[in-house]
Structure formats: C-alpha cells, structure tokens
Design goal:
Layout: H1 5-14, E1 19-26, H2 27-39, E2 44-52, H3 54-58, E3 64-71, E4 79-83, E5 93-98, E6 101-103, H4 106-112, E7 126-127, H5 134-137, E8 138-142, E9 145-148, E10 153-154, E11 161-165, H6 167-172, E12 180-183, H7 195-199, H8 201-209, H9 211-215, E13 241-246, E14 255-257, E15 266-267, E16 271-276, H10 279-289, H11 292-299, H12 312-315, H13 320-327, E17 335-339, E18 342-346
Parallel strand pairs: 2-4, 11-15
Antiparallel strand pairs: 1-3, 2-3, 4-5, 5-6, 7-16, 8-9, 8-12, 9-10, 11-12, 13-14, 13-16, 17-18
Length: 347
C-alpha cells in the first residue's frame, strides 16, 4: 500500500526539480514515505528527520518528527540522518535503504550485513495462533473446570484445550503461568471442525452456545471457512519445544517453551516462534539468538516506536548458521519438513 498519498503526491510534483519538502508527521509515516521513495527510485539528494517532543509541543502522545527531503534531477541518496531534536547539530543515527530493506542503523548494518539470510531459511519463524475472540477461546483452569473471559465457569473436555502463553508471558520470562488454556479447534488451517461434535461433545456445545460472538469476528479471513475456525495453526504449532519472543515488547529476549502436562504449549498471534523437535535443539537455538551479535544484528532493522517492532520477516532475515559460524558454535542444522500431516524434521 502507498503510505500517505498526499506526501507521495508532493514528492511526485517536485521530482526533476531543485526543491525541498518539509512536513511535520508521525515518525512511522516519515519512514514509510522514505521507504516508498527509495523503493520507487525517486531522485533524492538529502533527507533528514528531526525528532519532536509531540506531548510537549502538541499535547499529542505520538512519536513525531519534521521530515525534510531535498530533491534533484540526478541524485539517488538512500540514507537519512536522524536528529534527536530541531536544536541538535549532529545526527544521532543514520537510517537507510540497504539490500532492498529499510535499515534502522546503517553503521551497524555494515558491520553485520554478512549475516543477512540469502533465502536458505533454516530457521522457519511463525506467528502464533489467531482466533480474535479471547473471551471464548482463552480460559483459565480452575481445578477440574475452566473459566472463560466472560467469567463463566464451564466444564469442557481437555481434548482441544492446550496450555498457552501470550506476548506478555514471554516478555516476563519463566516460570510461565501454567493455568492458561487455548481452545484449538483445528490442527491445520481450513480443517473441518465438525469432528469436535463426536470427539468432545461438551466443547462442541460450548462453541455453539457462544457462536454469536465467534460469528461476529470482523476479519475477512473467517469468511467461507469452517465454523469456529482459527488461523496461524499447523503441524508446527504442536511441536513439543519452541523458541519464542514477544512481538510487541521492547526486548530482544528469546525464551524456550516446553510442553506442559505432556501437551505442547500454544502461543497467541502476538508472539513469534521457531518449532524445535527436542530440548537440546531449543537450547542451542536460544543461545544463538540471545547472543550479543544476534541482538546487534536485529537492532539494525528494528524501529521500537512501531506498533509491532518484532515480526517473523525481521527474525527470518538472520542466517542462523552464519551466526553460529560467527560465534564459533555448531551449525543449527534442523530444517522443518511437512510429511503426511506429521511434524517431522530432517537434519
């Protein structure tokens, strides 16, 4: 999608001229404008971002800036100096467009660009399960019963209930809360949910009693799907071990997540994770990802004021075996393979 059509239109108007655009805007908008301009090969001579204390000057709780872009008919500069305020004479950091991606720190990127994945993904990052109805699909265990988000105490079979962690749980770190449960209605996206009726009749009754809330889920991804569908689910969701991270918190801490009561732990869609086949594999991966080199690499791309600063695309940009080599550690050789609906691995 094209960010802020008005600013893009102004940039179009001043192309092939000697001109300067200066605009107050959100910091996220400024970066989207620059990324779009760089991707589109706009002629940019220089660009600067001056951070502004929006709460102080505008009584607005947003990250704002003054974006200044100078154009010419021939220059194609792909870096932008960022200043802490309008009064600062020297930039605090330089962002840019390198190897077809927006970079949060050009200097650090130059140091670690050899770790960028070249397409051989040995570390397959996933987002957690998306259901968009936490009041019904997320419950808390109370002895032999479960309490949902409506405050109802319900009696359900354990068959489709799995231990779960949210983004806040991963951010806090272990020991994790073992009482939360997620109702997982499918093993793969699009699978029929009618089998629940025969396997777990109390669960089926519960879902039907709250069908009005589930049917009102706004996202178009639920249209023309089986009743009570979820998304972001697959064989990888049921892996016995995972290495996960919160997508929202300003913390590059990766956590090992094992099974609880012999059932795999589900992560919600605010989390990112890699499925592992055993504890040793998870420990190895966690150690690699929590290294200072890995954190410096990821910091090259993270803008902490973004709504969701950590994504699967960001995490997948790291070549995990190049990182292992950098650290003098054994390669993380696992590759995810799907075969006949089972979660298996090849090495």
């Amino acid at each position: 999608t094209i960010p802020n059509l008005m600013l893009i239109q102004v940039l179009d108007w001043i192309q092939n001229r000697k001109a300067t655009l200066a605009m107050l805007c959100k910091s996220t908008v400024a970066r989207k404008i620059l990324a779009y301009a760089w991707q589109s090969n706009y002629c940019i001579k220089t660009c600067k971002i001056y951070n502004i204390e929006a709460p102080k000057h505008f009584e607005a709780s947003v990250d704002a800036c003054l974006l200044v872009i100078s154009v010419s008919s021939s220059s194609r500069n792909t870096v932008c100096m960022v200043y802490d305020s309008l009064n600062h004479k020297s930039p605090s950091i330089t962002i840019g467009y390198q190897q077809c991606r927006l970079v949060a720190n050009v200097k650090t990127f130059e140091q670690y660009k050899h770790l960028v994945s070249r397409g051989k993904q040995r570390c397959n990052w996933r987002s957690g399960i998306k259901h968009d109805c936490s009041r019904i699909m997320e419950l808390r265990k109370e002895q032999r019963l479960y309490r949902n988000g409506l405050g109802e105490l319900v009696d359900l079979e354990d068959t489709f209930l799995y231990p779960m962690l949210k983004s806040s749980d991963l951010a806090k770190g272990p020991p994790f809360n073992s009482l939360k449960r997620m109702l997982v209605t499918q093993r793969i996206v699009g699978e029929s949910t009618s089998r629940i009726k025969d396997i777990a009749p109390k669960t089926w009754k519960y879902l039907n009693e709250h069908a009005d809330l589930l049917n009102r889920r706004a996202s178009s991804i639920y249209r023309n799907r089986p009743r009570f569908s979820i998304f972001g689910v697959g064989d990888y969701s049921f892996a016995p071990w995972k290495v996960g991270i919160s997508g929202f918190y300003k913390d590059l801490s990766f956590r090992i997540v094992g099974s609880v009561e012999e059932k795999p732990v589900m992560l919600d869609d605010t989390c990112c994770f890699v499925a592992c086949k055993n504890e040793d594999e998870a420990i190895h991966l966690e150690e690699l990802l929590n290294s200072e080199v890995a954190k410096d690499f990821f910091s090259c791309f993270i803008f902490w004021d973004a709504k969701r600063p950590i994504t699967t695309n960001l995490l997948g940009s790291l070549d995990i075996n190049a990182l292992a080599k950098e650290l003098g550690r054994p390669a993380w050789k696992t590759e995810e393979v799907h075969k006949q609906g089972q979660f298996v691995f090849s090495t």
